[in-house]
Amino acid sequence: MTNILQTFRKNRTLFITLAILALLFLLAIQGMSTRDWVVTVLRGLAIGSITFLVAAGLSIILGLMDVLNLAHGTLFMIGAYVGWTMYVRPDTVVDLATPFLLVLAGLALMPLWGPLLARANVRPGIARLWPWIALLAGLGMAALGLTNAPLAIWSGADYQNSPIVWTQFAEAGTVAQNVQPATFAPGQSPVLIWGAILVGSALVGLAVVGMIRNRRGVEGAAASSARRPLLIFAILAGLALLLFVVNTPLTNWLFGLSTNVLFVIAIAVAALAGVGLGSLMEVTLIRPLYARAIYQIMLTFGLAFIGAELVRTVWGRTGFTMPKPALFANTGDGCPADSIAGWLQNSCSTIVLEIGGQKALIRTYNEIFVILVGLVVLILVWLLLQRSRLGMIIRAGVQDSAMVEALGINVRRVFTLVFGLGVGLAALGGVIAAPASGLSDAMGATLLLGSLIALAIGGLTSYPGAAAGAIIVGLVQQFIIKYGQIGIHLPFLAEPWKPTPPIVPASTIILMIIILLVLPQGLFGRKE
């Protein structure tokens, strides 16, 4: 009993704030029928689940690395577009696989160049010049190979070949019939094209190693085993050539899959792409700026604009939808379903349930699947952080990263994994959100703002706080939207007051300000 009282005294402001939030929730549902508030809560939880996937990644990165990644929203958007590509145009992904793996294979040889250069006796003047020559030659060869590699892709400028039209083909199930397979131009040799990409990327890696040695003034390098880089090189190059050989049958196999299976593959590809992009960002751009917080913010802010322009260049400026998989798309016989079993049997897009004596229409994808994904990710990431060795290292690193490094743990590698995990969660959120809300070049900025508000409410470096803040943001937005339809009965007003659309985002900001005035560290944040 004494411990309970001490805990309450220590955190009484938090408990009082949570009680007030619960009271406000109870007051909000009093003005609605049971059906309306249940549906509103489900929609709020769906929005909160998507927001959580972005906010959780931000929280983990900020907690361990003290990096505020303002490009997180753009990476969420890129995840959505990558998922759309795998789902609607898997042939494009297969075509890209071979040159992409060849580039990685060439870069995988970088660990070999340091020891080799250490043994070379090169004059200082030539040592400063040759990396630039190798870089220009490598970039030229890689560009020549990549621009001539066969690639079947849409056109953002041509409406008849735009993502909008390909989405319509996907909804009609006629993508495979309209795809024109890419082939090499007459007279082109696949050996020369693939060789140019491989050699070009290897030269770029060699040039980078040479520049690093010149900048650091390295006189020598410890000899290292060549077995691992050569093995990675052989695996990547062999896999690239294998995918080139099986390009056509693999593409046909993907087009023959059900949309449910293809959607699962799209989720995996988008999440892995996010992990890869995040790891690459940390190694190449974030790592040199750990001691310069303002430069980190400026860099990630600039990357957000670059990523948005890249999306507009590749996919076009017009927004479009991502078709739902078959499990959530049927509107024919037996639909809308009257139970979960009926939905699973008929793959209905909606379920009609009786709530409070009234029938409520619930969307199976938006209000069921999205919430389940958010819940599963919440549990899995919590288990990773609380029950795994990596989670122990991450939690220790949040408290004292110098101590963790002193124990012999490679903190840099942990930082790379954490940054990749955080971006992977954002990309996962993007591909999950795409069928529910569609794709547009503004979706990243919108989710980033909501995620930052959720983090501020829940606590910037708190994983449970990210979940709580995201749910609060989602619920507040959906209740304001609902009251914009039915109105709020206020004293001294003859007619119900209906909040206008601009109040929806403003309401979460006002709530954030109030909570931060009472709890500057957020609901579950650490006191500095």
Topology overview:
Elements: H1 2-10, H2 12-30, H3 34-65, H4 72-88, H5 90-107, H6 110-119, H7 124-148, H8 163-172, H9 175-178, H10 190-216, H11 227-245, H12 247-256, H13 259-286, H14 293-315, H15 340-346, E1 350-355, E2 358-363, H16 364-387, H17 389-406, H18 411-437, H19 443-458, H20 463-486, H21 503-518
Antiparallel strand pairs: 1-2
Describe the structure.
With 528 residues, this protein is mostly helical. The protein has one domain (31-327, 365-518). It has 21 helices and two strands. The chain has helices spanning 2-10, 12-30, 34-65, 72-88, 90-107, 110-119, 124-148, 163-172, 175-178, 190-216, 227-245, 247-256, 259-286, 293-315, 340-346, 364-387, 389-406, 411-437, 443-458, 463-486, 503-518, and strands at residues 350-355, 358-363. The protein has a two-stranded antiparallel sheet. The radius of gyration is 26 Å and the shape is globular.
